[in-house]
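ok so for the tutorial part 2 we go from a plain amino acid sequence to predicted structure tokens. step 1 is just haveing the sequence, like this:
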Amino acid sequence: MAHIIVVGNEKGGAGKSTVSMHVATALSRMGHKVGVLDLDLRQKTFGRYVANRKAFLKKQGVELPCPDYRELPEIDQANLRPSENVYDHRLSAAVATLEPDCDFIVIDCPGSHTRLSQVAHSLADTLVTPLNDSFVDFDLLAHTDTDGVKIEGPSVYSEMVWNARQLRAQAKLSPIDWVVLRNRMGAQNMVNKQKMEAAIEQLAKRIGFRVAPGFNERVIFRELFPRGLTLLDLKEVGVKQMNISNVAARQELRDLMKSLNFPGVTVDF
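step 2 — the prediction. this is what the tokens look like for a chain of 269 residues:
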């Protein structure tokens, strides 16, 4: 059985597609067979990222590991029972085509609540939730008091994850390993950053997730997307001297992969 990694939250701009591409490519470069799905059927940022990679590598005549991206197959609704949902079948069919040949399947969810995203969360062996260093983003996980100190209760996204956990428990599947990434953080140790750290640690104990380091805000990520590249590909495409920011970003990716602790994965880059 492939290990299913779902990257999701219900807010755009948190870096889900960037995280998805770097995790999928890192696993591919370490010799694992990786299939990927993009559940944002409108924007398809993750799918575009993989397509950009294939086009750039072909143009440059360079061979680099690339995850296997698949579109969700169309389903003939005439074959469905009245209570069945077409999106459930599209997702399960896509997973079924990848699972026999893959060690890992990475699923990138849209920045909104959809049926596809809800079902994907129930399939997750590992759930990765990138979170910007902002109480606007934190509000998806939990509500706080006006000082941003006391947690008053879980919010909509945490409740969806709880429901997904319940479904997996009923099906006698392994529990979801939920990892929240503090992503796109600024370099300065501001008061808001300290409050966010305290609130996330408090919430992690309360509703059961692990906290892992994500990526700092860096220009390099905007430059990589059009060519479909990741931080691990720079030397192969002619970058002879890595600047300090790129070296630091690569270390962040290494720390992230180690923190995710996927089964059978030894981080060796």
